[in-house]
Automatic annotation (TrEMBL):
Compartment(s) where it occurs, according to its Swiss-Prot or TrEMBL record: Cell membrane
Keywords: ATP-binding, Membrane, Nucleotide-binding, Transmembrane, Transmembrane helix
Annotated membrane topology: Multi-pass membrane protein
Name of this chain's protein: ABC transporter ATP-binding protein
Segments passing through the bilayer: 89-111, 164-186, 192-211, 279-301
Domain called ABC transporter: residue spans: 373-898
Domain ABC transmembrane type-1: 77-329
UniProt-recorded Gene Ontology molecular function terms: ABC-type oligopeptide transporter activity; ATP binding; ATP hydrolysis activity
């Protein structure tokens, strides 16, 4: 970043700044004319100076051009104007004044809009420049820079800088020319009044900025304190598990409270100083009118200043304080913004950044990382000055399978990070062939080298999004198809942003040997299956959803598979394993709410207890005559739950088993039961009680509250509920249809079109096996696995298990087929047997390419061609031939997904 804010602004926006400044200068003659018109209205029309010699008319809009004396003093007549009477002159001058007011307002409108657009463009450019530098942070800087502070800087702290950019050059020119025009006009009317106005303005521009210096210092302290507060809150959020485990809530609250008090104290001191300065500025602004009224009035009484001139001078000065005040505010804002900009440039200092991409990047893009890997005089020290690597050197011909044996030391992990370009904190040199590894452009490294550490980094999105992350290369250029797209590209070029759209084709299919998206999905699923995650992808697919309109053929095949499953259950004596969704029967395995809706809620309004408060649903239940029965059932549930939970601590397992009432609600329902014994229930209390049986499942909760008669009533009410919701045009529920796919339900429910019985032992495993068989026979496995790739991983992959995160991370590295794959603890989430199998798969997937893996000891190092050991800070390499696979040992094949449970 430029060290000077004004230089940065001028470099990137001088053309726009000059255009707006030219418009500002063009507006000043109109502004001067608007200041002079009040004098003409008072003197010429109201006091009648234009009719002093007794004439009945006077010229209006007469235009003459008078040259100054030093140019000869000639006069040029341009337009005779219109002859009007006294009233006509008054109305004409007044309308002309209104016209100039509109013209000046239009100038201000255009200038302000232009400033705003210019500021937003520059703010967009600045934020993009800062984000670009975030991508260039060195590995060492990333260990010290807090992500929350950096995000706060880009999002919030540059906001006032962007707001100032449009004012940087335009505002002082616009306001300055306005103030000078007003002062010039006052001097033209009376020299002494003009000198008094200049004197007060001089005091304002000298004293006020001086008093505001303290505000800058306090503002800088507050900005730093706010940034530190954001960083600390981010730290607590990242380590919230440790806060809970060690019960550090009180300490953290006290620490944040201390920081908030410091912010409060700084803000109070800023307010005190700010309003003292404001008081003084307002006093000086009102001092000049005092002189105008007193001294100007004296001149008017003496006859040296006419009334029209005095009115015009006072009117002109009324226009003077606003621009002067805004100029002083602009100067304050300039200093304040410069401080903020300086802090931004310090945060993104050059020492923290990697060098920008070089011109060789494209030329070296396709050069593989093969040849002799040679390290010379590597030195790395720890925080205490001890040598981890001391003049270490080695040579390894690539490609090779290399085991880096740690034996409990830190040297192996450090060497892995050096080889993966994840650290620059070393001296010495590493070369591959004739190229210095740490001078190869980052784009080449990103394509040719991959690194997987002990802590996988996943981004929010789907599994597919994370797997193809390394395949998102530069999209091919294309012409703008629409007017909106052309506008987007134009704005991108004006602000230094990328012209490529995220809707472009970013994925490099050729890199993985895929022809299209479907073929890429097959490759991804196969890769995950070979890494042992095929079963999870299959289960994720069963839990996923499809949109029938987007894939009608798949929807039809799912409905056909539903029929095939029903036939399978009937033929194999498995009829009792699944209770089907039948429009004319009550489903014992689902809740009362699901039976009444006979569908899947799509909005929160129809989920959980919210359903009991929906007026359309309650009307339908009332019309079906079920309201009293369900409220009575709610009373029975409340009585039973209060008896069961009495004396139990919050969090007890019974609360989860009987998920009707939470521990915090017991007191409330006990009060409802007591009131029911004495008087009728209120509407709100009936709604609360109605919400309890909606979650009731007889085979699960076994409270004996459902009989056959009530079940028939519920099935009858199902039709009324559907009619009422459809009549109310409520699109919050998608109803079940035996002949269609329910897009709101998971694929598992659409296949079974029912629920697994709670009563039959081992029902889930038997149903899962039947589903798996039908899925394979009908060729649906590939489609289900493709749907499984749409499974969301959550923030930092928290919706996946550690093993699943590790598999996704490895697959992301392997799918781009790097020349060098470096693994440092990437298999730590697995047990030894699973790690050994995955290592065999890794050897096959990296055939003909290099694999570097950090191992704890020699026990797993058998298949590796090169062993790297550390001895007294030196590196010892043992190059050997990899053992051949026994002929009777088949290659590992995990391509078939693991059949897991369906529910």
């Amino acid at each position: 970043m430029e060290k000077s804010l004004f230089r940065y602004i001028w470099t990137h926006s001088k053309r726009d700044q000059l255009i707006v400044c030219a418009v500002v200068l063009a507006s000043q003659p109109f502004y001067f004319a608007s200041l002079d018109l009040p004098r003409q209205i008072v003197n010429q029309a109201i006091q009648g100076e234009a009719f002093r010699e007794g004439q009945a008319t006077a010229p209006f809009l007469r235009l003459d051009l008078h040259l100054p004396d030093w140019l000869g003093g000639h006069a040029f007549h341009i337009f005779d104007g219109f002859e009007v009477g006294r009233l006509g002159l008054l109305l004409g001058l007044s309308c002309l004044f209104l016209f100039f007011v509109i013209i000046n307002g239009a100038f201000k409108y255009w200038i302000n809009v232009a400033k705003g657009v210019l500021g937003e463009r520059m703010l967009r450019r600045m934020r993009f420049d800062l984000f670009t530098m975030v991508l260039r942070f060195s590995p060492e800087a990333l260990r010290t820079v807090k992500s929350s502070e950096t995000a706060t800087i880009i999002k919030d702290e540059v906001e006032p800088v962007g707001g100032f950019i449009g004012d940087a050059f335009i505002t002082p020119i616009f306001l300055g020319t306005q103030a000078l025009t007003a002062l010039f006009f006052i001097i033209v009317q009376n020299m002494w009044l003009g000198l008094m106005a200049i004197a007060v303005v001089g005091i304002q521009f000298t004293v006020i900025p001086y008093l505001r210096r303290e505000l800058l210092r306090l503002g800088k302290q507050r900005q730093l304190a706010s940034r530190e507060l954001a960083g600390r809150i981010g730290e607590v959020l990242d380590g919230i598990e440790a806060v809970h485990v060690h019960n550090a809530h009180s300490w953290e609250k006290a620490e944040i409270g201390h920081r908030l008090f410091r912010l409060f104290d700084l803000r109070v001191r800023i307010y005190n100083r700010k309003f003292i300065v404001k008081f003084l500025n307002n006093f000086l602004s009102q001092l000049t009118p005092f002189f105008f009224y007193s001294v100007g009035g004296y001149f008017a009484i003496r006859g040296t200043l006419d009334i029209g001139q005095l009115v015009a001078v006072i009117g002109a000065y009324r226009e003077l304080p606003p621009p002067l005040k805004e100029l002083i505010d602009w100067d304050q804002q300039r200093l304040d913004v410069q401080v903020k900009y300086d802090q931004v440039t310090e945060h993104f200092s050059e020492e923290r950044l990697l060098p920008p991409a070089s011109a060789r990047e494209e030329r070296e893009q396709d050069e593989p990382l093969t040849g002799l890997l040679k390290a010379e005089e590597l030195r790395v020290s720890d925080a205490h000055g001890g040598m981890i690597l001391d003049s270490a050197s080695f040579e390894i011909p690539l490609p090779a399978k290399v085991a880096i044996l740690s034996n409990g030391g830190a040297a192996a992990g450090i060497l892995a990070r050096i080889l993966a370009r994840r650290t620059n904190g070393f001296s010495g040199q590493i070369r591959i062939g004739e190229r210095d590894l740490h001078q190869i452009p980052l784009a080449v490294i990103g394509r040719r080298l991959a690194y997987a550490g002990i802590d996988p980094i996943l981004f929010p999105g789907t599994i597919r999004d994370n797997l193809v992350y390394g395949l998102r290369r530069q999209p091919p250029p294309r012409n703008a198809a629409t007017r909106e797209e052309s506008r987007r590209i134009l704005e991108a070029r004006r602000t230094g942003n990328p012209v490529e759209s995220i809707a472009d084709q970013w994925i490099d299919y050729a890199c993985v040997g895929a022809g299209d998206a479907d073929e890429l999905d097959r490759i991804l699923v196969d890769l995950l299956s070979r890494l042992g995650m095929g079963g999870e992808i299959y289960l994720f697919g069963l839990a996923g959803r499809i949109v029938p309109d987007q894939d009608p053929d798949l929807a039809a095949r799912i409905v056909e598979a539903r029929r095939r499953l029903r036939e399978t259950f009937q033929a194999d004596g498995m009829k009792g394993l699944v209770d089907p969704f039948d429009p004319d029967r009550y489903n014992d395995q689902t809740t009362i709410a699901e039976n009444l809706l006979f569908g899947v809620p799509k909005t929160e309004e129809f989920r959980g207890r919210n359903l009991a408060y929906n007026p359309d649903f309650r009307d339908a239940v009332e019309r079906a005559g079920l309201s009293d029965d369900l409220v009575h059932m709610g009373l029975q549930i409340a009585e039973t739950m209060t008896e069961i939970f009495e004396g139990l601590p919050p969090g007890h397992s019974l609360f989860e088993q009987f998920s009707f009432i939470g521990a915090e609600e017991l007191t409330e329902f006990e009060a409802i039961l007591r009131r029911h014994a004495r008087s009728a229930l209120s509407k709100e209390e009936r709604a609360k009680l109605l919400s309890l049986p909606l979650a009731y499942i007889e085979p699960r909760h076994r409270l004996g509250l459902l009989d056959e008669h009530l079940k028939l009533q519920l099935v009858h009410a199902r039709r009324l509920v559907r009619e009422m919701l459809q009549k109310a045009d409520a699109d919050g529920v998608e109803f079940y249809d035996p002949e269609k796919i329910c897009a709101a339900a998971p694929l598992r429910d659409n296949l079974l079109f029912g629920r697994i019985s709670y009563r039959v032992a081992n029902a889930q495993a038997r149903v899962a096996e039947a589903v798996s068989t039908v899925v394979r026979d009908m060729g649906l496995l590939e489609d289900i696995e493709r749907i499984g790739l749409d499974h969301q991983v959550g923030t930092a992959g928290r919706l996946l298990t550690p093993q699943e995160r590790a598999c996704v991370n490895l697959a992301r590295c392997l799918v781009k087929k790097p020349d060098i794959l470096v693994l440092d603890g990437a298999l730590s989430a697995f047990d030894e047997a699973r790690s050994q199998k995955m290592m065999e798969v890794l050897f096959e997937l990296t055939e003909g390419r290099s694999l570097f893996m950090v191992l704890p000891n020699d026990r797993q190092a058998g298949p590796f061609e090169v062993l790297v050991r550390f001895r007294d800070g030196r590196i010892v390499t043992d190059i050997r031939k990899a053992p051949a696979r026994r002929a009777d040992t088949p290659a590992p094949d995990a391509s078939q997904p693991i059949a897991g449970e369906v529910a």
